[in-house]
Amino acid sequence: MAQAIEDWYKQMPIITRSYLTAAIVTTIGCTLEIISPHILYLNPKLVVEQLQIWRLITNFLYFRNLDLDFLFHMFFLSRYCKLLEENSFRGRTADFFYMLLFGATVLTTTVLIGGMIPYLSESFATIFFLSNSLTFMMVYVWCKQNPLIHMSFLGIVTFTAGYLPWVLLGFSVLVGASVWVDLLGIIAGHAYYFLEDVYPKITGRRPLKTPSFIKALFADEPVVVARPAEVRFAAPAVDEIGQR
Length: 244
What we know:
Elements: H1 2-10, H2 14-31, H3 44-49, H4 55-58, H5 68-88, H6 93-114, H7 121-124, H8 131-145, E1 150-153, E2 157-160, H9 164-174, H10 179-203, H11 212-215, E3 239-241
Parallel strand pairs: 1-3
Antiparallel strand pairs: 1-2
């Protein structure tokens, strides 16, 4: 069992493995009171006035208590982050890192702006960690790129992947959770999807081209494209969504 888990962990691509490790270590550290969440949460005032820049990063690493909700988000993080990095971004680690950086920037900016809008400021004032929203963004981007894959929710409702974000959003409403966490992920995910996949097809320009200094951080190996005779087609598997 331990060997299987070790092999599964080692087979993860670098960004997924690094983010998952940082999230688990940070959350366990806070649970054991080795780390205080008070030095991790997003606080724009402390970032600007006291230059606590690390908060712009650490608020994406803490997933609160070690409970079923934590396991749920670790499942989604390990699954959909891995699927994106190994498929859509295969051989493009720098582009994948830039996608996460873009998503984190959009989420942070949206929370800051939302905190200044009447009727929304009270809801946004309670958002201190954006880790769940960044995970939801990755789910949204994967679903937009794979909209026809068949899925099921709790083995009861079947649908195609394009509807998964809205199914999860509806489930959050049913259990009384804050919908803003999911909505922020949808906003960031759709912003990336539009600027990366839709806008270039309309205008021929790609506004989210990865900067060269980020590409220099990663040594991506060229992707080997199979010849037509080597291509095999398989029916998409049914994806079982665990209980949230």
